[in-house]
Amino acid sequence: MTVDADRLVGEIEALAQISDTPYPSVTRVLFTGPDMRGRDWMVERCEAEGLDVRFDAVGNLFARWEGAEPELAAVATGSHTDAIPNAGRFDGVVGVLGGLEAIRSLKASGLTPRRSIELIVFTAEEPTRFGIGCVGSRIMSGQLDPGRAAGLTDADGVTLEEARLAAGYAGALSLVRPAVGHYRAFVELHIEQGPLLERDGVQIGVVTAIAAPATLRVDLTGPGGHAGAVLMVDRADPMVAAAELVSAVDEVARGSGGPDTVATCGLVDVFPGAVNSIPREVRLSIDVRDTDGARRDRVVDAIRAKGRDAATRRGVGHRDELLNADPPATCAPEIVAQIEAVCTEQGVVAQRMISRAYHDSLFMAQICPTGMIFIPCRGGVSHRPDEFASPEDIARGAAVLAGTLAKLAA
Ligand code: HGY
Ligand code: MN
Ligand code: MN
Predict the structure, then answer these.
(1) CA 296, 302, 303, 308 torsion: positive or negative?
(2) Which residue, 84, 328, 359, 393, could crosslink 375 as a Cys pair with Cβ 3.0–4.6 Å?
(3) What is the pLDDT of residue 326?
């Protein structure tokens, strides 16, 4: 199975230019200008390939290659083109454009798939705008109630409902969820976002499980006041409680009893946010993950207790909200086997592994048999402008994906 590596890498580089930050960093936040221009660009590429393109009510893009027996459950592939601020140009994009290139190479080979093959570009895989990730696939899988989804609110108080309608996506969110059995399988190509494949000199990772993410939002509040005029004896400073909690997050994760527990506080919002004003509100957004859902939940509970303790010690207000606490996903053994068979046929060195990053596959696995194909990324770096995957690795991943789709759609 040969793919056109130059065309594929050229398209990845072209999409990287559609960004709110200068190349090589990529910023494409949900429904902002770059995200919308990136969507338009994807529609052009898919329609140029003769695919039938449609959007659902939350902006998931579906580009379909009709099979010989269109009434059969389709085989799907895809990923995301949205990007967190100052990210890299390969996260998500390799799976979207690699999926398109896989379809092109199958068409060029003269294959007429029995089952339709669908390329999906999911809405908001990244949590940047509305606080939780995988909004499009989460609604598709029934893990996010349409009513709750509509009410998600961004930092400017704009709801997802308002944002999707303003972006031109109408229709009922309740129709986003496909009928049971709509998909035969889903396979996602993605960079590993970790160092293992490169370190071990392995060409392809065959994902067996996806770690379970949880997002905890903690609000610490105090009276605030003038940074010069309020004496220390009279202060109740939520920033100090926040600092204790941030440190506790790291401590609890390290002490969880397992190497697969990870946690960080990646976002701190301070109100009013002036150097000479004692903070009145500090909002911490905390990301906790583990391959073991129960251990992850124990760590989340411990962090919530640490937050309450720090607030009490510092005499400040505390409230928290668990935005999501998703179960880990297991990739379907039959899909894992198919990917491995294709790797053998193509003479590719592959190894099984878990995904520590989450992906839309985490939710597609609740809809149909799902698998993931990883390619190495330099130094395991991701979510940074120096994120990099080589043309050879990208092309190899797209070729393995093409072979896997061909088998599943036969
Ligand atoms: O955070 C993640 O794991 C994904 O890159 N959104
Ligand atoms: Mn990402
Ligand atoms: Mn991703």
Answers:
(1) positive
(2) 393
(3) 95
Joined together, the tokens standing for residue 63 give 């580009």
126 lines ligand 1 (CB under 6 A): yes
What ranges in 203-292 are assigned the alpha helix state H? 238-254
Residue to mutate, 193, 267, 381, ligand 1, most ligand atoms under 8 Å from C-beta: 193
Question: Using one digit for the tens of pLDDT, what is the confidence trace for 108-131?
Answer: 999 999 999 999 999 999 999 999
> What global pTM score does this model have?
0.93
Residue 410 CB contacts under 8 Å (≥ 6 apart), including other chains = 113, 114, 115
Contact between 400 and 343 under an 8 Å Cβ cutoff? The reply is yes
Q: Please compute, for residue 41, the number of CA atoms within 13 A of its CA located in the half-sphere on the CB side.
A: 20
Ligand 1 contact, 133 CB (< 6 A): yes
Say if residues 149 and 134 touch (Cβ distance below 8 Å). no
CA distance 197 to 343: 15
